[in-house]
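Exercise 7. Predict the joint structure of the components listed below.
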Amino acid sequence: MKAVVQILGRRVIEWIASLGQMTVFAGRIVRALMAPPTRGPLIRSALFDSGVLSLALICASGLTVGFVLGLQLYNTLSRFGAEESLGTAVGLSLIRELGPVLTGLLVAGRAGSATTAEIGSMKATEQLDGLRMMAIDPIHFVVMPRAVALTLVMPLLSTVFVLCGIAGAYLIGVELLGLDSGSYLASLENSIRFQEDVLQSLVKSLVFGLLLAWIATWRGFSCAPHAAGVSRATTSTVVTASVCILLADYVLTALWAV
Amino acid sequence: MAGAAGQSDHVVFNQVGLAFGHRPVFRDLNLTFPRQKISVVMGESGSGKSTLLRMIGGLQRPDSGEVAVAGESLAGLDEMGLGQVRRRLGMLFQNGALLDSMTVFENIALPLREHTDKSEAEIRQVVHERLGDVGLRDVDDLLPGELSGGMLRRAAFARSIVMAPEILLCDEPFSGLDPPNVSRIEALIVQLNQRLGLTVIVSSHHMASSLRMADQLCLMRQGAAISGTPEGLASSHDSTIADFIGEDGISHLARLQERPPQGGAS
Ligand SMILES: Nc1ncnc2c1ncn2[C@@H]1O[C@H](COP(=O)(O)OP(=O)(O)OP(=O)(O)O)[C@@H](O)[C@H]1O
Ligand SMILES: [Mg+2]
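Solution:
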C-alpha cells in the first residue's frame, strides 16, 4: 500500500515538474515569435507540411462524416416527420462539435505526430546541437515555425471539414433521399448564428491548434535522443493531444453556455 | 578560478567532474589546450572524447568544476551567453549533424546567412571555396541524405570552418575517409592552424595523422587525461601510454623526428 502511494506521489511530482518545463518551453516559443528575423520561409514550408498535405485527409473525412450524418439524421428526423430540418441538424452538429473535434484528432494524428517525429529525429541526430553550435537558437529556427503552422492550420482545416461535411449530407439528403434542395439550404441558413455557432467553432479549433502545437513540439524537443525515444514521443503526442482536445472541447462547450 | 589560466591557454578544464547516472565519465579532469596549437585527444571508445568536445561547446554542462573558453567560464552563461562564445567556435560532429531538410549548399551557407550580411554572390563564393578545400564538387543541390559517409563528413567539415572560427573542434575528422582524403583533411587542418592561427582540438583514432599533426597529445583514461608533446609521451616510461600509442606509433614518431616537421603536407 505504502509502495503504491510512493509511486503515485513520485508520478504526480514528475508530472508537475514536466508541466513546469512545458510552461518555460511555451514562454521560449512566444519569445522566439517576437525575436527577429520572422522566419517567413520556414513558417511557409511548415504550413505546407501541416496544412496542404493534410487537406486530402480532411476533405475525405469531412465528406464521409457528411454522408453518415445525412443518413442517420434523415432517418431520425423522418420519425418525427421533420426531414426538412436536416440542414439545421447537420449544420449545427458539424459546426459546433464534429468539425473542430474531428479535425483536431485527425490533425493530431497526421501533422502533430509528424512534427514530433521530425523535431525528435533532429535531436537524435544532433542537428539541434549543430544549430546551437552555430549560435542559432533551435527554438527560433525549428520549433517556432512548426508551432505557428500547427496553430494556424487548425481553424482553416476545420472550416474545410465543415464545408465538406455539409456538402456530403447534401448529396445524401437531396440527391439520394430526395429531400428538396431549397429546404435543406434554407434550414441550414436560418438556424446558424455567427456569435453562438461559427465563432465558437473557430475559437475551439484555435485552442485545439494551440494545444497540439504545444504538445507536439515539446514532445519532440524533450524526447530521448534515439530511435526508440522518438517513436515513444510520437505515440505520446497523438495520445496526449487527443485526450487534451476532448477535455478542452468539454470545457469550452461548458464555458460558452455560461 | 579560470583567471589562473595563462594567456597561452585557449581552453581550460579545471577539476571537471561528470557522470551519466552512476557511470562517471570524468573525475577531477584538469586539462588545458594551448592557443594556436593543434591538440589531439585520443582514448579508447567510450573514454569521453566526444563528451569533452561537447563540453567545450557548452552542449554538456559539468557536474562539478568548470570549463573556460578564451578566459571566460561557461558555468555562469545562459543560452544567449553561450551563443556569443559559440560564434568563436567551429564544431565538426561525429556524425556530421547537417540539417537533412536542406541542401548541402544551404547547410554551409546557413551560418553566413544568419550572422553576416554578405551578399548572395559573396556567400556563393565562400561556400564554394570551403567545399573546394574539402575536395567536394557538384554537391550544391544534393541533400545530406544523398551523400556518402565520407562526403557527408567533409561537407560537415566545410560547414564547421565557414565562419573562420578561432577554435576548431573536430570529432573524429578522419573516420570513414579514404587515404587521399585523410591527407587532404589533415593538410587542411595544419594549414588552418599555421596560416590563420586557429586553435584546433581534434579527437581521433587515426594514429599516423594524429602523431604527425599534434603539438599536444591528450590521452583520456579512466576519467582523467595525460597530456604532453607526442615525443614526450612516447619517451615516457609509463607503460599504459606506450601501450596506447603502441609499437607502431613509437616507430612512426621516430621516423617523423628524422624528417622536417609537416614536410609532407601540401
Ligand atoms: N547522453 C548520454 N547519456 C548517457 N551516457 C552517455 C551520454 N553520452 C555519452 N555517454 C557515455 O559517456 C561515455 C563517453 O562517451 P563519448 O561519446 O564521449 O565517448 P567517445 O570517447 O567519444 O567514444 P567513441 O570513440 O566511440 O566516439 C560513454 O561511456 C557513454 O556511454
Ligand atoms: Mg565520440
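Discussion. Chain A touches chain B at residues 122, 125-127, 129-137 (CB under 8 Å).
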